[in-house]
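Example protein was shown:

_____
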Amino acid sequence: MSTVYRLKASEIDPKILEEIKSNYGDKEIEIIISEFDETEYLLKSETNKNRLLAALENVKKSQNLISLDLHDLP
């Protein structure tokens, strides 16, 4: 069994630790800490990378932009 918790270090509290203890009881577990870089993740896919770079170019050139008035949202 494995579980992924993605949170800010500042969000680690006794509740999270109790949840881990509850889920795994007396089993031996391994805790690995690593930073999560969303940009790196999003750029892994060549297709996604190209879409993001094209979107950045559109913003720079003020092209293909959609404007929303927040008052029009439900």
In short: The chain is about 45% helix and 0% strand. The longest helix spans residues 46-61.
